[in-house]
Amino acid sequence: MVIDNGLEGWLRYSALPAVFSNTQRRYSSIIVLNKDETSPVYTAGKELQDGLKRILGQHVDIDFVLTGSPTSIVVGTLGAFSSAGGDTQDIPALKEDGFWLQTDAANDCVHIIGQNERGAIYGAFEYLMRLAQGNFTPVASANNPSASIRWVNQWDNLDGSIERGYAGPSIFFKDGEVVKDMTRISQFARLLSSIRINAVVINNVNANPKLFSETNLNGLRRIADAMRPWGVRIGISLYFDSPKEFGGLPTSDPLDPAVNDWWKKITAKVYENVHDLVGYTIKANSEGQPGPLTYKRTLADGANMFARALKPHGDGVVMYRAFVYNHHLDESVWKHDRANAAVDFFKDLDGFFEDNVIVQIKWGPIDFQVREPPSPLLANLRKTKAAIEFQVAQEYLGQQSHFVYMAPLWREILDYDMRIDGKDSHIRDIVSGERLGWSRSGYTAVLNIGSDTTWIGNHLSMSNMYAYGRIAWDPLSDPVSMIQDWARLTFGLHKIIVDTITKISMESWPTYENYSGNLGIQTLCDIIYTHYGPSPGSQDGNGWGQWTRANAHSIGMDRTVATGSGNSGQYPPEIAAMYENIETTPDNLLLWFHHVPYTHRLKSGKTVIQHFYDAHYEGATNAQSFLVEWAKLKGLIDDHRFDHVAFKLEYQAGHALVWRDSVNYFYFAKCGIPDEKNRVGNHQWRIQAQDMQLSGYKVVSVTPVEAASQGKAIITKTNDAPGIAQKELSCLSGTYDIAVNYYDHLGGRSKYEIFLGEKLIGAWTGDLEDKLGHDFSEFLDGHSATRITFRGIKVENGDLLKIIGQPDGSELAPLDYVSVLPKGAID
Ligand code: GCU
């Protein structure tokens, strides 16, 4: 089998299996209605030629003249088709970027007619992706987008790093400048085009004004030129204080004429390089960024300054982010609530923005958590247009070292009915512009691909990029059929492949929610440091406002109007009433809206604390099954991608147990209410490292305490001599899985060997930082806690289990515990 490194994503165009040979078409030519090599129509022609060769093994010539041949594929714009004498009678009205796809089963005639050039290339990809799945069903359909804004955001820095990027360095920037080689940029544009994304904002929202240097402006030109043939436009993020810090002005006050003038001039320069710039993204007065409030002006004053600078140059928009909040909130004030910030800041400005300003709203009120209600701001703007912001990068959902397929989450948000004015107001219809009559609105998502050949850090997580594009085009896209299409295109048509990937994907979000944070308490990761592993204590006691208000008796944010922060009152009346009342608040958002005792009974009949315990056990158990499911694909897909995913799922299975135990220990310690099933704190198969016979090792306390079994771990006494931990096993002789929980952190690559008696049963290196892309920590904590398992080991009662740890640098071969697990036991 050919090695597949993932670079082509879902556009692999694998040869169709022989079973499809009877249905194969014979095309006489591809008629391309544009000869300009930089036009998306021309690119579409080339893509069709390449795709037919690879999928069907047919070489088809390209022609530029419409002949009326009954066996050709015609691709072009509606305008070009009709000027060339094509019959447009059957073609229904098409929206901007839309396309008409018609195939005639009898005579092998295919028409791919775009409303514009982008529409034509989208249609070409659609046709190829049908063929690649062996779908030869005749079709005659007009395909129109739900919204005109279908963007992605990259959080790339000029130095080549990517904020919250988990797949290697930037493909756009290196050492302060735009890269020279445009190959990956063009490949990226191809993927984006195939999922009908029409623009990418290429730099971090925490922006650097040096993007405006002459070299970088020229670089922007090169990027835009590389992406344009695929119908993808570029936009940039701006640093609000650029006039002061880059332009040498004394202020960046948005009402200062010199500042406005500066933005107009620099905008003109940008357009000299990128004549079709799609617009600006602005993060201002957020997380330490300067903004209009810094100069005592309104957010609208700031947004409008950019909007006016863009206007003379075309249709560019300002995507002004609603992610504005005070990150020094005082938790001791019961009414303080970060979730209120977006509405507090933006509601009264509704209607005060220029018509080319779009307010970009994160889907939830806080920050891409595993579960949130939709942002109330989505129901509070009437005249000012909005776009919803999703996050494909799984920042709070396991950073691609855990796999979470997010299409079901996005669908849940888009299907949500906000009941504005008591009428149907599904979020999909708000952001499409239909519900409130907006002319321009839509979607964006933080994507953060990097130069890794998997693009995103995990082959499975690419399904999120694919699904995002399809949902932004059609928010009614079904998560199951999207993952099935994606699996067929990415891995192959075999039913076992499609069913297995679908099963894992559809279970992935509930599984992750179960072992991370339940009942609307948010992802209980470390919010101060890496946003990755468990650290429930980090939510509270700081100004960031991702609070849980957990104490010894009760937990949750009181967001009611009656006794809490009033957040429920920011929603339209029917929704507000639902969340105000604890009886009508769904269990999965209970702790988002209410502060309750741990003994509060849910609608399920369980108490809150028992639900926490059970959900964590259920989630962590299910995470073990993904690996077993995936094993079915051995030999059905290439070994390279099989092994890559198997490695990630194995890691995830181990880390899910770390999550389970950390969160359960934390709340057990807090409230003292035992698990009804007596699992929490009881681990019959475990040998704690501190209970082993140690030489060269010493016992240390771990912080946070719940990140270690019984709060303790062992590390070597020095960093230049090995440590030995051993223990005589007392168990029935038989076959066991032996799992070792250790810590793999930055600072070194320790080496370990594990023996039973004199027999070496395994060896490994603490080098996950070279193999996994998530943010690593330097400490023994919930991020670095990890597990390795040796399966099917024959054990005799009385065998001596021995681990030798060789420290390296500041990583002192840390060990937490060993589990000797009989068949079927998970712990
Ligand atoms: C999150 C994320 C930051 C990012 C911010 C934003 O807080 O952790 O890295 O800058 O969102 O969306 O602006």
From TrEMBL:
Protein name: Alpha-glucuronidase
Gene: aguA
Active site, renumbered: E287 (proton donor), D367 (proton acceptor), E395 (proton acceptor)
Positions of the Glycosyl hydrolase family 67 catalytic domain: 138-455
GO cellular component: extracellular region
EC number: 3.2.1.139
Pfam families: Glyco_hydro_67C, Glyco_hydro_67M, Glyco_hydro_67N
One annotated GO biological process: xylan catabolic process
